[in-house]
Write a structure and sequence with these properties.
Elements lengths: L1 E5 L7 H16 L4 E5 L20 H11 L4 E7 L7 H10 L4 H5 L3 E7 L7 H13 L3 E2 L5 E2 L15 H15 L2
């Protein structure tokens, strides 16, 4: 299974729209199961003082960890740029997942990163910082990290990705990641 993670808890984000687009790209290229995890659906129960104790984990997070994160052999993390980095909610998710079964959740899994920003950098800094965290968790980070910059210019009025160069970039990235 491949798990696509939309790395922000902002409702209706462009990140979730790119995650859905990437899911469709992967589904065209493989028969593997592709699951989508939208961080925006986990507003309740993620950030609280008991999250660092096994007994304090939310049932919603426990279920997601068992059904999605542990079985997934590969992850695709799509992260917007927030203040020159990746969203704090994404860091909280990784911290919470490391409480129960961290080896089964992270160790030796393959992960790729896609950065998104409204500015010119495409979240390069955030992807670099996220790479460090994921490598610390013993994940293998794929070398290719597309940076989708000025994301608003790449979408149509329905927030659908329409830019041919970006679509081609993501198609090629998906193809390469499948063979990683």
């Amino acid at each position: 299974m491949i798990l696509i993670i939309s790395g922000t808890n902002r409702p209706g984000s462009l990140t979730s729209k790119i995650a859905r687009h990437y899911q469709k790209l992967l589904q065209k290229q493989t028969t593997e199961t592709i699951e989508l995890f939208l961080l925006e659906d986990f507003q309740e129960g993620l950030l609280h003082t008991e999250m660092y104790e096994t007994s304090g984990q939310s049932q919603l997070l426990n279920d997601a960890q068992k059904k999605l994160f542990i079985p997934a052999k590969k992850w695709v993390v799509i992260s917007p740029e927030y203040n020159g980095s990746y969203p704090g909610a994404l860091k909280v998710l990784l911290d919470a997942l490391s409480v129960n079964e961290p080896d089964l959740t992270f160790r030796n899994k393959k992960v790729t990163l896609i950065g998104i920003s409204s500015g010119r950098a495409g979240n390069w800094l955030g992807m670099d910082q996220l790479t460090t965290v994921l490598q610390y968790l013993n994940m293998h980070v794929f070398y290719s990290k597309p940076a989708l910059r000025q994301i608003g210019n790449l979408l149509d009025e329905n927030s659908e990705l329409t830019d041919p160069k970006t679509i081609s970039l993501l198609e090629n990235h998906a193809k390469e990641f499948l063979f990683y």
